[in-house]
Design goal:
The complex is a heterodimer.
Chain A (H helix, E strand, L loop, with lengths): L3 E3 L6 H4 L6 E5 L9 H5 L7 E5 L5 E5 L8 H13 L6 E5 L16 H28 L6 E4 L2 E4 L4 E3 L4 H4 L28 H5 L15 E6 L7 E6 L1 H4 L4 E7 L11 E6 L2 H10 L1 E5 L8 H12 L4 E6 L2 H7 L2 E9 L11 E7 L2 E6 L4 H12 L6 E5 L13 H13 L3 E4 L2 H6 L7 E9 L5 E9 L4 H4 L8 H8 L7 E6 L16 H19 L3 H9 L4 E2 L7 E2 H15 L10 E9 L2 E12 L2 E12 L6 H20 L5 E2 L2 E2 L17 E6 L17 H13 L15
Parallel strand pairs in A: 4-5, 9-19, 17-18, 21-22, 27-30
Antiparallel strand pairs in A: 1-2, 2-3, 3-4, 6-7, 7-8, 9-12, 10-13, 11-12, 14-22, 15-20, 16-17, 16-19, 20-21, 23-24, 25-26, 26-27, 28-29
Helix pairs in contact in A: 3-4, 11-12, 15-16, 16-20
Chain B lengths: L1 E5 L2 E5 L7 H9 L17 E4 L2 E4 L12 E3 L6 H12 L9 H14 L5 H8 L9 H17 L1
Parallel strand pairs in B: 1-5
Antiparallel strand pairs in B: 1-2, 3-4, 3-5
Chain lengths: ~725, ~150
Amino acid sequence: MAPIKNISRRHFLKNMGLASGGLILATSLSSFSHLTEDHLKKETFNPNLFIELLPDGRLILVASRSEMGQGIRTSLTSVIADEMEADWSRVTVKQATGNAIYGDQNTDGSKSVRNLYQSMREMGATAKAMLISAASKTWKVPETECTAENHFVIHTTGKKIGYGDLVSTAITLDIPENVKLKSSKDFKYIGKELPSIDVHDIVSGKAIFGLDKRVPNLKFAAIKRCPVTFGSVKSFDKTDVLKIPGVIDVIEVPRIIKPFGALGGVAVIATSTWAAFKGKEALKIDWDYGANAEYTTNTFITELTETVQKPGKVNKSKGNIDQAFTKGDKLIEHTYQLPHLVHTPMEVPNAISWVKDGTCEVWAPLQTPQAARKEVADYLGINQEKVTVNVTLLGGGFGRKSKPDYVVEATILSKEIQGPVQVVWTREDDIQHSYYHTTSAQYLKASLDNSGRVTGWLHRLALPTIKSTFQPGANYPLGGEIGSALNVPYDIPNMQFETGKADAHLRIGWLRSVVNIPNAFCINVFSDELAYEAGIDPLEFRLQLIGSDRIEKTKEKFKYDTAKLKHVLKKAAKNAGYGNSLPEGHAIGLAVHYSFFSYVAAAIEVSIVDNKVKIHNVNMVIDCGVAVNKNSVRAQMEGAVIFGLSLAYYGNISTTNGQVEQNNFNDYKMIRMTEAPKTHVEIIESKSAPTGVGEPGVPVIAPALVNAIFKATGQRYRSLPLSKHGIV
Amino acid sequence: MITLNINGKNHEIDADPSMPLLWALRDIIGYTGTKYGCGKGLCGSCMVLMDGTAINSCLMPVSAMQGRTLITIEGETENLQKLQQSWADLNVPQCGFCQPGQLISATALLNKNPKPSEEDIDNAMARNICRCGTYQRIKKAIQNTAEIKIKQ
């Protein structure tokens, strides 16, 4: 168990924004995947997870992770309330500012619940034990005669006392040891369908996203950035801009050469967002396009394809792949091509920064408030203690809001105009100047024996790496970018995985599900192709490929269990009626993938109407350990289907001469309601520790769809998006 | 000065007549529930009701809005309030950013067509993008609202 302390009387609490007078418990985050004996023995205590019970009964949780639609504020509060036997409706959330004291605040990698679950439960159970103890002291009765229920402690005689009324006694108590956690069968909130705690504010328009934040005397700014990544301003003419009503000033923004630094450009400061946008359009700028001016994605994907069709760097090898290919009765090889993508959260990147008297305060939608704090402090040359980063609600994140370059831009401008300024990206800015999901070419080759068994499997990929954003010039993938392909859990005697070289010419970043998107696509589609080559039903063939029930060796704390992988696949197929007779022309495609330690399978039923694909239904099955909030797990799976279909149908960022060709939602299209299929979600009941939910649903969608289209038409699509093949 | 009637109240604003209603609402009057999503009438995040019909406020100059009855997500009309309740009951929102626009679109639909078919809903709501992908729940919430109204 992690150390938990009663810190109700500590002075530093003012900095956390918690009031005095309440019972405040703190723990040092024991993200149990990282918890070690050393950690437990440590004498220093750096609390980073806080709850406060106020004398009026309100319970406040300091949320260190950002809310972007995944329901984290709801999930974390429900876990505390459940163990504490608190009334969940009386729990409120205080959003933490960016501060190293909270430990890792990065909201990405589908890890918030995974890392916080255990600590939250222990905190709740500890608080409950202390309240029972306080009641027993108040009534002078043994603790064993007291129970806790719905924000009250109740004595066997029936008398009861509210949690708030116990605060003054509870704060004097020591932390009890060896507190018992509830049995899962007694859970009241965990594992149930809970409504979002923010829903009423959202539907009434009261919820404050970054764009909605206002401070006195706020000015608005729009920035014109070089159309080619890392190009620079040669000269500019602001004459026409200054004539626009509402425009105050035009300021050149320097490029800050850091992973999350400003791209640079020319900013228009105005009294309204609209005047700033208009001013930006009127700017005349002469650019030096720089080193990326020849980046044309059409040419680049051809080069990547040539790269992966030649031997590469061997990252992993088992058995003897060359021998397998020599001996194989049938050899199959295919190359797949996947494009760049961009996040387009509905709320564009934006930030308010206010530099004054040697300090800076920021309000922004951020997945990484600590990184923003550091960037601001570094830019201003001040101590991080002087920088306050307030996290608003996020109107979608998907990884874009992990990169706080827009906060740096706002800070540069606030320092310049000596007042608060809100930088707002236009949608075109968001699409043309992002940190893009990588493009890749992937070559797969397999040998089959005469009974249709796969005897050899070679996977070779090349992609511009995320590492290039942090280490310019890096041109081989990171371990995390190849893991899902490297560790494909197939029971094949001879396997080899290789990578090829690929230079980056855009800022490469992570987008929801990251490289699981292309990797799962290629693995699932190629496996399906092999099934037809072997003359075996794709479901049966895939189960054979995965093979026996076993735990795959990985370096991770979470076990990769092939039985669970097969189970979700079989369930999805069954729920979809796979193998049953379907209406004329209908076909079901399958895909399964393990990512963020969760197992997800999709079964998609399609038919072809007027040469276009029509999706009749999607069946999703997820095993994510304990589903802390079933409603949000279900919502994430439903959303993953739409996100996955948007990228399968339309997702494509292309460049010519370094310039992104897409502009807005007219040419970077999204799935709309007319194309949204009926989706059914099954959550596997589990007692295992919770694993990722926000991302693992996306990667299976595109391959399941492509596999379904093949079954329906005999046409195999080995590149995305499908719109370029005319099928959607 | 331009006079706008929003949520039952007149607002006199000093704005460039060509400024789109969206920015007058957000940056001058302070109704930030209406969102910017694309600025080109492509995503529906900025929708408001103009005389009961849903319009993209990012495209409409304030000069053309004089004498109109405007209702934003912060406003009160029967269908909007009923839909807001269904949205909460069915846990429609994820991030929530597009939902004001979705609710306005749905309100306009029910204003015109109290018993929409599934196809009617699809067509009316196709003007709104939800990047989180809450379409299935949006559709259900509209259907529920229409059913409750019919029963009453």
